[in-house]
Amino acid sequence: MNDFRVLKHYSVSLLMTLLLSAATLANAADWVTIDNAWVRNTLPGQNVSAAYMTLTSQQKDTTLINVKSDVTDSVEIHSMSMQNGVMKMRMLKELPLTTGTPYKLAPGGYHLMLFDLKKPLSSGDKVNFVLTFKSGKHEQKQTLTAVVQSADEAAQDDHGHHHHH
Ligand SMILES: [Cu+2]
User: Fold this and answer.
1) Domain boundaries, position 12
2) Are residues 46 and 23 part of one domain?
3) Ligand 1 mean position to 139 CA, how many Å?
4) Is residue 119 part of a domain?
């Protein structure tokens, strides 16, 4: 009788331990924290767009090396800068991240360029991404879902989160 009670108690603790380790593993597995991911909606006749998000690496020497999406077969990492009064976009082979420093991909700066969209993107649509990160000899894929927004909606969101006047 006593033995049975001990065994039962033991099984429950073991189960709890397993559940807790599973949760911890899931968190520890993510090298990069990805926040505020959104994709710009398309205008009629437009088949290119861009995705924005904030990447914060939790891992040493992590580099974004590849991006895939379900709305296009062609995603590029781009930088954008003003040169002689003209906005210029440049393709980057990879994007190195500094550990613990938020890396903000935002309109007018770094972005994930989406070419040859399979369908128009409207506000509220969901776009799935698989980001591949490299650290040393290891690679890790992280999936994320970004919501489609207009630039205005995104700016309002940003305001809501960061300013309270
Ligand atoms: Cu671009």
Assistant:
1) 1-30
2) no
3) 25
4) yes
CA distances to 51, 91, 123, 126, 141 from 149, rounded to whole Å, are 10, 24, 5, 10, 25
pTM above 0.90, yes or no: no
Q: Cα separations (Å) of 126 from 7, 41, 70, 115, 121?
A: 48, 11, 10, 17, 9
H/E run at residue 27: helix 2-29
Q: Ligand 1 centroid to 82 CA: how many Å?
A: 13
Q: Are residues 80 and 1 in the same domain?
A: no
CA of 158 to the centre of ligand 1 (A): 21
Which spans in the chain are helix H?
A: 2-29, 151-162
What token pair was written down for 97?
A: 């991240």
Longest pairwise C-alpha distance within the chain = 84
120 plus 96 within the same structural domain: yes
23-50 pLDDT per residue, tens: 444 445 789 999 999 999 999 999 999 9
